[in-house]
Amino acid sequence: MTAQLRMDALPPAGWPALAPFLFASNRLDGDVRCLHSHTGEDAAAYAEELRSLPVGEACYVAARDGDVLVGVAGAEFDVSLGRAWLRGPLVAPGREFRAIAAALLDALCARLPPAVVQYAVFVTAGCAEAIGFYLGRGFDLHASYGAYTALRAAPPAEGPPPGERLAAAEPCWRAVIGALHEAEFSGGYVTLDGLFEADTEDRMTRIALLDGEPCGYVRVHFDAHWHEGYVDFLAVAPAARRRGVGRALLRSALAWSFARPGAGAATLTVRDDRDAARALYKAAGFRRVRTCIGLRRTVTR
Ligand SMILES: CC(C)(COP(=O)(O)OP(=O)(O)OC[C@H]1O[C@@H](n2cnc3c(N)ncnc32)[C@H](O)[C@@H]1OP(=O)(O)O)[C@@H](O)C(=O)NCCC(=O)NCCS
Q1: pTM to 2 decimals?
Q2: Which domain holds residue 63?
Q3: Whose CA is nearest to atom 40 of ligand 1?
Q4: Do the domain assignments include residue 8?
Q5: d(CA 130, CA 98)
Q6: What is the tens place of the pLDDT at every residue in 107-124?
């Protein structure tokens, strides 16, 4: 059966038409398989997101058996970071998953820019098929994460800790915040330059100052597609912990998120070994909605 498979790289204009297939084949026991592919609650939302993808930063390949679409793999990528966030491979139910997925992954990776050398995969923990597939393809288990959501209910109002204030990022704090960002989120998807870009309508960085000295930061963005605030990064320097700084930063990120027009929720993912952060989010009203597995592979080109 796989001998007849044809791999087509799709031009951007062809991506939205993949949405019904992607939406249907990404289902798994009331949840989803691939989180990077999961871009809405129905096929129309998937199509809308596919239409919005920047042309030079994404790639899709389709597997066809004759005229029948039997699988799709895609990726978003950032050449400056050298990284791709893989989507799928998603294979039609009843088809031979491993063989089709392998052919799709090869075809996809061959079409990514040569500067892209790190591949990241993010799947739900229940998707043993995908986890086994990627492990067999040289990917490593990176970490297990919880995905958390908070609905509009804001945490109780409370003043900042004594001596603390929050401020927009200023260049003079780059060294301290850069060291903290590197220590906690080395290789994160937002660089230090990105953290220190001016705030916009859809993203914000806040620095916490204790007695005038920077000691923590939060970065949040608003996902207009999901109508949700997303807390990208939050960290407090070890010497300043357990004094309410993390809570104040999180509160400012939530207040900002829920002030966006149409905001319905705030979300984040956190590594399961980050006990302090999980306790902070739980205390702030976040509820765990799923467990996700991150897999990574670095290639030489
Ligand atoms: C998570 C983190 C930001 C918390 O910052 P913090 O300033 O120490 O947190 P706060 O003092 O505001 O704590 C607020 C509440 O969170 C919970 N909490 C925070 N740290 C905790 C810990 N080590 N153990 C248990 N609960 C903890 C508590 O409920 C606490 O309230 P309480 O002190 O009244 O009991 C900080 O530990 C950190 O930077 N960790 C490393 C980076 C990280 O994991 N970031 C999150 C990744 S998504």
Answers
A1: 0.89
A2: 2-146
A3: 235
A4: yes
A5: 9
A6: 999 999 999 999 999 999
